[in-house]
Amino acid sequence: KLNAWEPKFLAAIEEKREQELKQINTMLMFGATNIFLLWLAPTIVAVSTIATYVWPMQRELSAARVFTALALLRLLQDPLRSLPGYITQAMQAQVSLGRVTAFLSLPDRVDPVLRSYDDTG
């Protein structure tokens, strides 16, 4: 039975799996935090914008100004929420274009086994 190496291989595999699970857990927690902040950001921006208008600027707040500001922020919300996806797609397109360019820049392969009909003579 392979000189009783099963426990050693099992220990090595379990160690690697434990490392993998820690990385997966970290990645999932990071993703959950990003999604939470993504959905919380518009509320924070709206509250901070209105609070900045009222408190440091010492301006009078009316319903018309609040609704206008909220409508404007709502219009900006969807494009800004899509921006990270667009950046990711642009980066993936750039990487793909680099790979295709590198492949197409390779010299043609000359295979000595393949001959044309003119070489059969």
Structure description:
Helices cover 75% and strands 0% of the residues. The protein is mainly α. Helix 1 packs antiparallel against helix 2. The relative contact order is 0.04.
Summing up helix and strand content along with how strands pair, one would put the structural category as mainly alpha
Average pLDDT rating: 88
> How many beta strands in the DSSP annotation?
0
Order of helices and strands: HH
Beta-strand percentage range: under 5%
Distance between the termini: 59 Å
Helical content (DSSP H or I, runs of 4+): over 70%
Poorly predicted tracts of residues: none
Shape: flat
Radius of gyration: 30 Å
Helical region count?
A: 2
What is the quaternary state of this protein? single chain
Largest sheet: none
Short description:
By secondary structure, the chain is mainly α.
Key attributes of the depicted protein:
single chain; 121 residues; mainly alpha; 75% helix; 0% strand; flat
